[in-house]
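Marked as duplicate of an earlier ticket. Keeping the data here for the record.
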Amino acid sequence: MQFALPPRKTPIAPPYARSSRFSLQRRKQFKAVAILSFALLVVFFLLSQLFYTSTGTAAVPVGTPDVVIVTVLDRVRFSEGYTQKIVKNREDYAKRHGYTNFFANLSDYETTLGDAPKSWAVVPAVRHAMASHPYSQYFFHLDAHALIMNPIKSLDSHVLEKSRLESLMRKDVPVVPPDSIIKTFSHIQPQDVDIIITTDNEDMSPGSFVLRQGEFAKFFLDFWFDPLYRTYNFAKAETHVLDHIVQWHPTILARLALIPQRVINAYSKDSSAAGADGTYKEGDFVIRFVGCDTDTKRNCEKEMDPFYRSWVGKTKIE
C-alpha cells in the first residue's frame, strides 16, 4: 500500500530586510540623479537652439552680411591711388546695402598659383572669402578693373530676388556664344541656381559673377581650380576652363543661370569682345575695363578716371 507523501515544504527565505534609513537614502539618490539628468537635457536643448536652427543648419549670427563683394587687387603693379579708388567704390556700395567687402591681394596666392597665369587668383580668392564669411549667403566677384556705377541698386533687388532672377534667366540658349551645341537648361528654377554669370561675344565672363554659399559652391571652385586644368595651357586660362566644365558637366550647368551681360557686367567701349548688347550705357550697374591691364596701348587708370569722377559726382548729389 502506498501512502501519499506529505507535500514538500519549500523553505521560505526570510524577507530582504531593508532598513527604512537605507531606502530613504536610495530614493534621495535616484531623485538627485533624475534632477541632474533633466537639468543636463535642458542645458543641451538651450545650447542647440542657440547654435542651430530647427532645420539642423548652423544659425546665422546677428549682423552677418548677406552679400560679400570679392575683389582681387594687384597692389604691386598698380598705384596706391588707383587701388584706393577701387576700394572706396566698393566700400561705399557695401555700406549702402549692408554688405561687406573681401579685398584679396594677388600676391597672397602666387605660391598657390605656381606657374599658372595670375588671372587664376579669382578662384582661391572666392574660396578664401567663403571660408572667412561662412554664414554669408552670396559672394559677388567683381574684377578690380571695374566700378559700380549705379550704387542705389542693391544686388538683391537687381539680381537675386526670385522673381527678378526668373525674369533675367536666359534659357535654352548656347552656353558659350555664338553657337555652342550645349544650351542652358529650360527647366531650371531660381531656387536651383548657385551660379549667376554672363557671357560676352566669345566666352563666359568670370570677371563678374555671383556664387551662392554651400557645398556645391565649394565643389565647383575646387573642380574649376583642378591642377590638371591649370597646367593644360588653355589660351584664356581660367575663362576657357570655365567654358569647358560648364559645357561638359551637366551637374554644374544644372546650377547655373545665364543672365544678360549688361545686368552685372557691362564692358567699356574700349573693351573688345562685348556681346551684342554688352557695352556700358548710362545707368548700368557696373562698368568693366576688360583688357586694360593686358593691352599695352591702354591704361587702366586713365580709362577709369572719368567714370570714377562721374561716380563721385553721383554720390555727392545723393
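See parent ticket for discussion. The domain at 67-317 is CATH 3.90.550.10 (Spore Coat Polysaccharide Biosynthesis Protein SpsA; Chain A).
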